[in-house]
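Sequence, structure tokens passed on for absentees:
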Amino acid sequence: MSTSAERVYVARLAGTTVFDPIGDAVGRVRDVVILLRRSAAPVAVGLVVEVPGRRRVFLPLTRVTSIVPGQVICTGVLNLRRFKARASETLAIAELFERSVTLKDGGDKALIEDVAIEPMRGGTWAVSKLYVRKAARRKGVLGFSRRGEAVVVEIDEVTGLMRRDEVQGAHLVIQTFADHKPADLAAALMEMSPERSAEIAAALDDERLADVLEELPEDEQIALLGTLQSDRAADVLEAMDRDDAADLLGDLPAAQAQALLQLMEPEDAEQVRQLLGYEDDTAGGLMTTEPVIVGPETSVASCLSLVRKQEMPPALASMVFVVRPPLETPTGRYIGLVHLQRLLREAPHELIGSYVDPAIEPLGAQDSLAEVSRRMAAYDILALPVVDEDHRLLGAISIDDVLDHLLPRDWREHVDEHLDESEKPGVA
């Protein structure tokens, strides 16, 4: 092991680029895997490295040949199996940071803010020091304040390192992923213990948790939803896209699904029930009930403002659907769709009804997945409308809805298999 500094702090290591011996970047460090032991000092055994495709894999520290500021050098070929912490393993950033410990000297309470690891003989790394912030006393009550004194202590100068308690916050993990896509946080939750992922879920707001749930595999969705109180679970389901909420409820026992529907707002619950009435592999089962819907008298400028909304998925933002009132699904009679490119070419004051594409035929709610796929490929389009027998718009199917059903159910677990060979990390 060759390191420029004998001691490495985990917080500074996070985000560091990992290189192979010939200088090619293979990923970035996202966390450090630690073994906490009751009868011996804790040791660091590996790094969690994010590789192309946002997959997080395990890199044993025995394969790390150098850690210097700004880079980690590894040897050998990375195992691209998605990392999942074992029961005996602890993630330093996700699970140790913000943990409450007691200082033996004086008995003060403190929160862990950083962890130092040092190389030992035989290629192992020991957890040697902790950077902690002492609690501050306010009005005689012991509370944790950022104004408390920060100190570096030896690992054997604290107690309670192995004890997880309610004091440990989740906000640090949430803050770390604040600028990341929901899929990134979903991947991180899959790496954590069920208890820790439940803590993170409890601390997320409803909208963010809904976005994260939509990115998880079905079994992980069910498990995480099961950690929430029923009222909170219903609120999160309301915040999810209607088709995703219907898919999740469809995987739950009927009694549980009905109980959650009863707790949801009546309008939201009714839309989800509508989707639950269709088979999964039909247009009705695939569609969302919340595309961009406008009347024919809407101006081009107003339509552009609707598709610019940040929460609008790109595929659905590629077009607007024009209908007679009412504009809520099921709408009045469906007129047609207008492509975003056409909107960009027209004057802002023009009315949208003049630019409907007459070549795109809508789908019926009972059309099969095969028909949906064939039609989407034939039209070379990102979304298609779904209408009922009275030609009222029921919703729209986007390309991501189709791919979710065409790909294997566990496709998120095998992202690396679909990467180009040049994108896969490793050492020749």
Summary: The longest strand covers residues 25-35. The chain has a mean pLDDT of 87. The chain has four domains: 2-92, 94-159, 171-278, 293-406.
